[in-house]
Write a structure and sequence with these properties.
Structural class of chain A: mainly beta
Shape of chain A: globular
Helix content of chain B: under 10%
Structural class of chain B: mainly beta
Number of helices of chain B: 0
Distance between the termini of chain A: 39 Å
Order of helices and strands of chain A: EEEEEEEEEEE
Number of strands of chain B: 11
Mean pLDDT of chain A: 94
Largest interface: A-B, 19 and 21 residues
Low-confidence stretches of chain B: none
Low-confidence stretches of chain A: none
Radius of gyration of chain A: 13 Å
Mean pLDDT of chain B: 94
Oligomer: heterodimer
Number of helices of chain A: 0
Helix content of chain A: under 10%
Strand content of chain B: over 45%
Amino acid sequence: QQQVKQSPQSLIVQKGGISIINCAYENTAFDYFPWYQQFPGKGPALLIAIRPDVSEKKEGRFTISFNKSAKQFSLHIMDSQPGDSATYFCAASTLYQLIWGAGTKLIIKP
Amino acid sequence: DAGVIQSPRHEVTEMGQEVTLRCKPISGHNSLFWYRQTMMRGLELLIYFNNNVPIDDSGMPEDRFSAKMPNASFSTLKIQPSEPRDSAVYFCASSEMGQKETQYFGPGTRLLVL
């Protein structure tokens, strides 16, 4: 019930394409759903986040879509660029900590 | 602000040795998290401090691991004795009180135990 399941494990997208990463959860007590981006040799950094009372949040080329009834949320990267190549983690917030997905390694081919 | 500072950035040690990892959180942040990242297990929360007090250490693998936060600007994670399976990248992260969703990560310490 505390798990966050993330897919796919890895993803290759052509430059200019749309990258989509999906996450699913079981615990309806989760109250915040952030996405973190991690470049090699660096720590994860917050990219974008959404609360469960909102179905979509957009920041530039990055969009979170949230489906509360299905207990799923996804990250969409529009017009994907080589600089977006990184590992992406979804997470869900409990009372005092984040429950992390396993991560998706995204490669954008030029 | 300099961000979360971790030292050392890389550590190579031999099995059985004591390893101490250090973290300086962002000034003003009340919450501090220690994580371990490996290919096999992903990102694991080891321990969480709030106002220098350990709140949840259920993620600490075993008694060989210990963590302290003697003041608001410093924390240590100690492994004694170290084992090859402890090889991983260890991250420290901090957040403001009540802002657990926004955690600021340090650059990590890459630990290799031979």
